[in-house]
Amino acid sequence: MSASGISDVTGHEPSGSAALRRLRSLGAESWIMLAGIAAICAALIVFLALPLYALLKKSVEDDKGVFVGLANFQEYFASVGLVQSISNSLTIAFLTMIISCVLAFTFAYGLTRTCMPFKRAFRAIATIPILAPSLLPAISLVYLFGNQGVIKALLFGESIYGPIGIMIAMVFYIFPHVMMIMVTALSTTDARLYEAADALGTRPARVFFTITIPGAIYGIVSAMVVAFTLTITDFGVPKVIGGQYNVLATDIYKQVVGQQNFSMGAVVGLVLLIPAVFSFLIDRHVKKKQVALLSARAVPYHPKPHKLRDAGLLIFCCLIAVFLIGIIGMALFASLATFWPYDLSLTLAHYDFDAVDPNGWSSFFNSLKMAGLTSVIGVIIIFLGAYLVEKGQNFPHLRGVFHMLAIVPMAVPGLVLGLAYVFFFSKPENPLSLIYGTMAILVVCTVVHFYTVSHLTMITALKQIDKEFEAVSASLKVPFYRTMFRVHVPICLPVISEVMMYLFVNAMTTVSAVVFLYSPDTKLAAITVLNLDDVGDQAEAAAMSMVIIATSVTVRVAHALLMRGLNARHSAWRTRTD
Amino acid sequence: MAAKSKAKSQPKRAFLEIRDVSKKFGDFTALEDISLDIIDGELICFLGPSGCGKTTLLRAIAGLDFQTTGRIHQRGRDISDAPPADRDFGIVFQSYALFPNLTVAKNIAYGLVNRRMPRKAIADRVQELLELVGLPGSDDKFPAALSGGQQQRVALARALATSPGMLLLDEPLSALDAKVREQLRHELKDLQRTLGITTIMVTHDQEEALSMADRIVVMSDGRIAQVGTPIEIYRNPANAYVADFIGSMNFLHGKMGAGGQVQVGKMKISLMDKTAKQFAKGDDVVVCIRPEDVAVRNLKQFKAKNYAMTIRDVEFLGSFCRVTLDVDGDKDAELIADFSINLMRDFDLARGGKLMVSLPRQRLQVFADDGSIGDHK
Fold this sequence. Notes:
The structure holds 2 protein chains of 2 kinds. Helix content of chain A is 70%, strand content 1%. By secondary structure, chain A is mostly helical. Chain A starts with 14 loop residues before the first helix and ends in a 9-residue tail after the last helix. Chain B folds into 2 domains: 2-89 and 164-243, P-loop containing nucleotide triphosphate hydrolases (Rossmann fold, 3-Layer(aba) Sandwich); 248-368, CATH 2.40.50.100. The chains are: A mainly alpha, B alpha+beta. Chains A and B meet through helix 1, helix 19 and helix 20 of A and strand 1, strand 2, strand 4, strand 6 and strand 10 of B.
């Protein structure tokens, strides 16, 4: 029986009409999917693309909204003070990047490639800074090295207010981010390379430069990019400890909040956007290459004891731990000391925030509410978005557009996003302006600000789920959303909870994105820290920082307990846990 | 029972009619003008190397990826543009695709629950299916607690639960160990025969296809190279591609000479008259013979030329030996032959030994040599 010989029915037709016919015969499920992707796409356009466009537009308008071309840019580059900030920002970012990467690499090397003790403890300590607002290390440094600082003498007459202070505080603040990338980079190696080198009698230094460094190079570049971006876009540190040393981030704030010069703020915002976008592109490029470097057959590396190396790195890691704990400890002590530095008896008086700020404790509850809403609403949208991108069947172009939009927030500094929101949502003719000044805009802005990392985490988790589940489900005539709830959500529960924690902690500590958007009723705890520090209530500022850290730690511990419970309950089917 | 009727006995109305189906991914043509009838109750295998389009065709039939052009009818109904949920099939994947967070029973009942069947009926059906696939008592286990073979049985039960009109199997046995694969091969075939369910199986494993299929569709580069029963495909490959792809084959490159003979190196090989007639004198041809068809005993019966050959190499493969032979070191006429251990012993064959062989005409396949057929062995 031959396949040919049946040619009386022709199946040829122009593909355009086939596509149209197919569109008409789309099942209800496909329409639901289409509606879902379209809705999330629309949301990202309204809450990301349009505000950024408004920022761009503002930069070529004068204060009355008249188009003035590049006049604002001319004015900007004519101002010596403002241009000086560019070089200041780049210098600080570059030096901080070098210092933090060297320290974090050595620290990560200790964690991954030696047999030193207490690795878990070191790792836990190194992640503490994530739980604090970036203002905290700056405040702490003032206590340590400021005019009445404990160990001021160590600076040999240099002032902590300025580049030195910014850099030290920045190294503290970005250390966990850089360290975690370095650990990943150093963990993904193939032990066989080292065995081969050993068999050929290669000297340790040569092994380090020909195997260790090249193997981790993409991770190192990625870490450098992250360090650079975080430093150049952070606002809290230079605000507190920058003194007269101006950087781009503080310029935006001064132009907008101080001088109400919105057009100039937009220009500085765009200038700040350039290094951020540039770093982002390098990072994307490097990440793509990194994937190809990893082979599934690689044999994991297990370090062998080496007394000198292990002892040396143990001492190094201890010093870093002392630095990190010292910063936190100083802030804690400052918050408890009755009257620094004259009366060091302990008191909880500084935690009575309402005594110094009418929105003291209420700002903390605002933060809790904002962080809670951000993590719940955020995780729902991010999960659905990632699901539709990764598991959707039709509309590849629309899914592609959405995926691209979802990556953009990573390249947009919080200050720039916040400013863009001001321009877009404050206009009375915009129907969405009714959310301006409410909790809603803070939540939306924070979700968008931290969208990319959560989205990519979720995508990675969904990629690990068998891609045929949708096909099986369709063949059994079970709608996709049912399978999503019954199968994908339970499988992704650890990641969902992880993303929720990430959003919560970041929402608790963020300052940059929301500093332009809060109103007296929706003031947040991290903003209160900023204000308290501004008016000289530094002990109270330190105290509020400690409250934020305590909250983040509580959430972390709760997350860990939840995970343990989940793993115990699902141990029958959950084979691998992270 | 429908299952008892052999698929090839009587031509029926085709269960599935595939007409001029093409699929393009950008510039790449994955399927080109595929037309095929699939008969009610048969087990048909799409066989080919990776990238030949077999899975693409299966996914088009399932509606998981739509064809670019062409029509597909199932039982006379045009399903060309129907989404998978509107088609009537059950599917089993190489990865099993079992829901890891649901028990075996819940996995099997997954499609039933949606049909608003009473709880008792669902439970009964699940038990029935568990018995059918030989896994009674595994209801409350999670997939992670089962072996690969057991997981694939559960996947099969889940696909069969809703009594679909057609079963699609996408490399169902490829992820399993050799022993389990062979056992499951038999069980799957038995089950298919008992249920009489029309089944399409995609595989790259020719042994699997030959042993299980009622018919095999050999595919290459998005086209159908040959459709036929396993024996037809093996004995009478339609072209050199199929001859090469299925089983082992000797390819002897030569020139058509006078009197229906082909000159291969120093050998003259005589062909059947009807075979020889297809070629003109001087044509470049390839003469194909399976290693097991190289004859050593009772040479007279073949009425063909005998050749004195030297054994260059002997490869011991358990139940038989694969022997490399040639005529006076002539590389153009090198042959491989599979000899039973029995024959090796009777003729006292070893490396360097000599023997007389014959190439029976009725076992020879001859194709025009377009240079595309390698003599890799």
